[in-house]
UniProtKB/TrEMBL annotation:
The keyword Hydrolase applies. It comes from Haloferax gibbonsii (strain ATCC 33959 / DSM 4427 / JCM 8863 / NBRC 102184 / NCIMB 2188 / Ma 2.38). It holds the Pfam family Peptidase_M20. Residues 417-435 have a biased composition (Polar residues). GO terms for molecular function: hydrolase activity; metal ion binding. Residues 188-314 form the Peptidase M20 dimerisation domain. InterPro entries: Bact_exopeptidase_dim_dom, Peptidase_M20, Peptidase_M20_dimer, Peptidase_M20A. Residues 417-445 are annotated as: Disordered. Keywords: Hydrolase, Metal-binding. This is M20 peptidase.
Length: 445
């Protein structure tokens, strides 16, 4: 058996140092909003500087900088390890632990511990392990830490991609991708349609409703018909996406139920997030507004689904779409070099199965794929992201560091060998990323 790489040996010998790094990161308050990450960004810059690694600061908003550091590798291949410095807000009164970091046994509590300062700590530990052992990674390692992710803001990754770019052969984002003891690498996201509907009616006194036209009733009938039409629609997938859907349904089944997990990817999902109208109980409302969140599986033409919604709305008098913001889902080949590299390394480190599945939403992975960089998400952690008493564990931190440290060697091997290991048949290695586009429609109100 070959011996473990020096960087991995170093990480195992300095396991507690990874926890200390995570605690230092969590100790910086980077709630978003307001999303001020300047202090933490400076801390990260100092960390790399002490290792002799130069950094770049890229910012469109000075309070929300993005940091890039590069560790040269032995080949011209490049792997990006990507994370975000900001966190969602917290209410201290809802916590029984210190939101800015508290250690108890194997657990590190604090906002961002599992989403995703713990994973960033693991990435920083990898950089230090390579430097301290005097070893060169098989690929160039680019560490990119962005701001503004939690509110999908333009100051974060969009600014970094626009002003500097991230040219790479592969990217791994350190989002936590586990549900209990079930681990996964996320290789896809779903397309989305955010719709705003407006209905108009005729006001009347509430004691004589027959003299008016209730805008809320009109709007709700339209929403119900949209839900019904999309609920009757079943997607058709090419073999690569079909394999991904099967794996995703199996992964989510213990949490959602087998039927619900399959329906989540076989059909569009619809959420009525906002419904408003009227201001007095004794008046028939003359206006109403609704906002819908529709999600579609990667590989499905989002605009075709939107066209179907338009047809439904066109059949309802007094109802119109006043705003539509939509995106196409993206995915990586579940049997491609990147997914295989992360999956095989993670299985070796965790000793268990690592599913290749779709996320239920979308985020920076979609942005990276749309920028032409093959991207997946992987991170060991807990299911406490965004919750009070969020925490990660020393085991998860150490596991992440070892996975990230081993990835350059395995990724290079996968690129060179072209080995395909995914448990499916007829998965096409090419053409698995759909056409990428997004559009915002604004109709006059």
């Amino acid at each position: 058996m070959p011996s473990d790489p020096p960087a991995v040996v170093y990480l195992r010998e300095h396991r507690e140092d990874i926890v200390d790094l995570a605690a230092a990161l969590v100790g910086h308050d980077t709630q978003n909003p307001p999303g001020d990450t300047r202090e933490l960004a400076s801390w990260v810059e100092s960390f790399f500087s002490e290792l002799g690694i130069d950094t770049e600061r890229v910012a469109s908003n000075p309070t929300k900088p993005n940091i890039v550091a590069t560790l040269p590798g032995a080949t011209d291949r490049t792997l990006v390890l990507l994370g975000h410095l900001d966190t969602v807000p917290f209410e201290p009164g809802e916590w029984t632990r210190d939101p800015l970091g508290e250690r108890e046994g194997n657990r590190l509590y604090g906002r961002g511990a599992t989403d995703m300062k713990g994973e960033i700590a693991a990435m920083l530990a990898v950089a230090k392990a390579y430097v301290e052992t005097g070893t060169v990674p098989a690929t160039n390692l680019v560490f990119a830490f962005v701001s503004d992710e939690e509110i999908a803001g333009e100051a974060g990754l969009p600014t970094l991609l626009d002003r500097r770019g991230l040219s790479a052969d592969a990217c791994v984002i350190g989002e936590t991708t586990c549900e209990g003891h079930r681990h996964s690498v996320t290789v896809a996201d779903r397309g989305s349609i955010w719709l705003e509907l407006e209905a108009t009616g005729t006001a009347a006194h509430g004691s004589r409703p027959m003299l008016g036209e209730n805008a809320i009733h009109r709007l709700y009938r339209a929403v119900s018909d949209i839900e019904s039409a999309l609920g009757d629609r079943r997607f058709e997938f090419d073999p690569a996406v079909r394999a991904l859907v099967e794996e995703s349904a199996e992964y989510y089944a213990p949490r959602f139920g087998a039927d619900a997990a399959r329906e989540l990817f076989e059909r569009p999902s619809v959420n009525l997030g906002v419904l408003s109208g009227g201001d007095r109980v004794n008046v028939v409302p003359a206006a109403a507004r609704a906002k819908l969140d529709i999600r579609v599986t990667a590989g499905v033409d989002t605009e075709t689904i939107l066209d179907g919604v338009r047809e439904v709305v066109a059949g309802h008098e007094g109802v119109e779409i006043v705003d539509a913001d939509w995106s196409v889902g993206t995915f990586e080949d579940p049997d491609g070099p990147l997914a295989n590299a992360v999956g095989s390394v993670a299985e070796g480190v965790t000793g268990g199965r690592v599913y290749r599945r779709s996320a239920t939403g979308g985020g920076d992975a979609k942005r990276m794929r749309n920028a032409g960089v093959p991207t997946v998400e992987f991170g060991l952690g807990t299911e406490t992201a965004h919750a009070a008493d969020e925490f990660t564990t020393a085991g998860a931190l150490a596991g992440n560091a070892e996975v990230y440290a081993r990835l350059p060697d395995e990724l290079l091997r996968q690129f060179d060998s072209g080995t395909r290991t995914f448990d499916s048949t007829d998965v096409s290695p090419a053409g698995t990323t759909p056409s990428r586009r997004g559009r915002r429609e604004n109709n006059s109100r």
